[in-house]
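Justification of resources, computational component.

The compute hours requested in this renewal are based largely on the per-chain cost of generating structure records like the one below. Each record pairs the submitted sequence with a full structure-token output. That output is archived, and it is also reused by downstream analysis tasks.
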Amino acid sequence: MSLSLLAGCVAEGSDDFDVDEVEQNTVCGPANESQHVNSYNGALGPSTAFVQANKNSKGAMEASPTSGKFCSGSLIGTNLFLTAGHCVDSGTAGEFVSFNFERARNSTALLTQTHVRISAVLEDELGGLDYAILRLEGTPGNTFGVSAVAAGDPAVGAALTIIGHPAGQPKQIEAGSLASISGNFLRYSNIDTLGGNSGSGILNSAGQIVGVHTLGGCTASGGANSGPRISRIRAVSNLL
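The structure output for this chain reads:
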């Protein structure tokens, strides 16, 4: 690891801005069913082993190691990080991604984080798609693992999982199924998200990224959340 990797902790809920400005809070149904990754009980569909195997490569974007989190994303290479395009702006290079921002099992205590500096924005909304690929300093993928990117889209009805940081909180899991494919988007009507989940990889049952969560649209009585599908991102990206 390079000197840009800073270990430490920040207080949960220390956000200095409103993560709801990044993405609308959208819970599908009467209650948010997300669970903290290390206390997950398997009730949402994926096994606890699946969550443990796939959580480490997921990170939270932050302006500095002591600021709140505002978006989520996934390591897709030793130093490449996939997130949402609307999470990126002219000040992104020089900001950070936090890994291991998680609660300990059955506790509110936080694990020790590692903060990795963002060195460059390599791709941002190519083809009008809401995705971005960032280059991080060092080789964090060698430490936290890498998420595989699927070759194509899942079938309607396929199981999907989102692991990310709703409302800038410690890492959580939600899961459901693909309701439909519409244009550039995967749509899912039974996976709860909050502001801060933007950029989370949408995972298939093999743990591969099949899309990037970007949009809220669920309500207590209907609607769907969504994100660009990986086949459309692959068609415009020079890095996938």
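Residues 1-18 have pLDDT under 50 and may be disordered. Residues 176 and 191 are 5 Å apart (CA to CA).
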